[in-house]
User: Fold Acyl-CoA dehydrogenase family protein from Microbulbifer pacificus.
Amino acid sequence: MILTDQHRELQRTVRNFVEQELNPYVEEWEAAGSFPIKDVFRRLGELGLLGISKPESLGGMGLDFSYEAIFLEELGAAHCGGVPLSISVQTSMATPALARFADKVLQEEFLSAAIRGDAIASIAVSEPGAGSDVSAITTTAVADGDDYIVNGSKMWITNAPRADFFCTLVNTGGEKAHSNKSLLIIPANSPGVRVGSALHKMGMRASETAPVFFDSVRVPKRYRIGEEGSGFLLQMLQFQEERLAGAALTLKGLENCVSSTIDYVRERQAFGAPLLNNQSVHFALAEMQTEVECLRSLTYRAVEAYVNGEDVTTLASMAKLKSGRLTRTIPDQCLQYWGGMGYMEETAINRAYRDLRLTAIGGGADEVMLGIICKLMGILPSRKKQ
Assistant:
């Protein structure tokens, strides 16, 4: 993926936004466990950053996904993970299927407002018994004339307390798990929708996360994205952008771990000399930065293939897997060099350690990525004959 002048101009815009409108307030938002999402999203909408790869006819920029990836990479330089996570839910998790497969009327009703930042979107797929195994969801949508009646619950839903609508995966009938599902847009103010209490998380504290309950919620069938029964496939396609976004989001955060650790160990004295003077330390930091560059190259390659219309299931899964691995090892190794200070919550490395840990879980756990890669390599174990 070769960056053009247009890419670099977008980088500068996002970098300025992060430095001027996010980072000065991160400490306050982390302490509060929330941020002024509507204000931040409206500002992003004014800058056109919530619709980079969305159709111009709906208020987007109409650019390809490489620009979205650059936006997400720069967004990852924020001094916390929660705010970028909430933004990426809006741009790369809850709206891709709406932009690609919904009819124009549905797009005009929901997507245009999301692009402007006037509506907060949330993706409602995971359930208490169906996190990694999406096919196991139990939320149902039963046809009733021109409507569906939705019953069930969703868990770990980012943006839920502030959401205006949920892009929701439901079972609409049939026994086959991969063909009995549909994607529905469910307005948050629909009678029977209830958002539970905010969940207390290890990290990503500035983003609000909660369970969502659907109790006989009446949803017009016209709020369905695509054909009935196509929801599993559409969500798998939507996952491709989510996983590429997840990998892109981690790049700057990982680099911040390395650079902040270099600064710290240069000043930290141990046995009469800067800790950075130890070969094992500066070699390890060089190794970490090399790993980040490898992840960047893999992510850029996957994004370029995606833009060219190729099937990127393998590459996107590999990028997601690699980012999940590095977001565990790099913050952990860096925190070790911070010693006792790294164990204090007020340090940047401590927050990165907590925030980035989600990468190996959300959007498909590492083990799910490995399963996908193995399947596409043709190396899944064969079943024993009965």
Notes: The mean pLDDT is 95. The domain at 233-377 is CATH 1.20.140.10 (Butyryl-CoA Dehydrogenase, subunit A; domain 3).
